[in-house]
Amino acid sequence: MSRIGALVKAGAFFCAARGPRLRGGAFALVTWGALPGLAQAEALAFPVDCTLGETCFIQHYVDRDPGAGVQDYGCGSLSYDGHDGTDIAIANRAEMARGVTVTAALPGVVKGIRDGVPDAAPFPEGQDCGNGVLIESALGQEQYCHLREGSVLVQKGQVVETGTPLGLIGQSGNADFPHLHLTLRRGGKPIDPFSQAATCGPAEALWADPLPYVPAGLVQAGIADAIPDYEAVKAGALPGPRAHAGALVIWGEVFGARPGDVLTFDLQGPEGAVYQGEAVLEKPQARAFRAQGRKIDAAPGDYRGTVTLTREGVELDRISVEARVTD
User: Fold this and answer.
1) Which residues form the M23ase beta-sheet core domain (predicted)?
2) How does pLDDT run across 178-223, given as a tens digit for each residue?
3) Cβ-contact 305, 324 below 8 angstroms
4) Taking phi first (over 0 means left), then psi (-120 to 50 degrees means alpha), and beta for anything else, what does residue 195 get?
5) Around 46, how many Cα atoms within 13 Å sit in the side-chain half-sphere?
6) For residue 155, how many C-alpha atoms fall within 13 Å in the half-sphere facing its CB?
7) pLDDT (0 to 100) of residue 41
8) CA–CA separation, 271 vs 254, rounded Å?
9) Number of H helices and number of E strands within the chain?
10) What is the distance in angstroms between the CA of the first residue and the CA of the last residue of the chain?
11) Each residue's pLDDT tens digit, 216-258
């Protein structure tokens, strides 16, 4: 039985896993503490109703390199040139449609709102933020961008508390995937909530609860009976695998990919191993999508797969997925 060639796709979008998944593995992460003397009025709450590392992740940090290069606060490169905020992303547009709430990170007063910009569509000039909320607080200003069309819940002049719902994560404005872009400004200048130090490395953060530094990871993974259609995976609308379809494929998507990163695939069926293989990533990419598998007359039953991401021999992330193959 011959192997289906590895699929190589790249871009700034997501793919969707069908069926339950379990996340594991030893993240290569560092947690740096919040400022010990930080005033409560300036301690940031996490602004999305999700579980970081499970149902959402940080796609981009603030770019701290003042020149043409890129450097995040952890001395890595999970950012892009000139990026002035923190991007908190979710898996795909199906998750966006189900609704993921954005909440106020600090108490303050709403100074401006915008709604009515469509998601995943062209946007008017000057509306890169898409639908958003601007709040003035004791810290300075917080700008929440790319909210879902029609979801903004607050009004200009409204007083909000920490945790007040502002809207839902969307893909409005200049957004290649569903996410919240949060920019903090003090005196009109962007600041990094993860570090107030002038250089990268361990530093005190503005978060009320310490958040881990994660340089890369897996967005999601899945099992299919053919190489998935990319529009379907971006939408989160993949059908389940069918029996006797002629092939089985296991796929995964990486964020923060770097040259030399390795994706390892392991697919097991009712009678044991179905496929095992790996893909080495060749270049830096915000997103990298790979799929591998084999031609097989798959019988109905329960199939399990694991996708593992390693960097320089260290496991960064692992996702386990399950799928029931039906006639």
Assistant:
1) 83-193
2) 999 999 999 999 999 999 998 898 889 999 999 999 999 999 999 9
3) no
4) beta
5) 15
6) 2
7) 59
8) 29
9) 2, 21
10) 21
11) 999 999 999 999 987 788 889 899 999 999 999 999 999 999 9
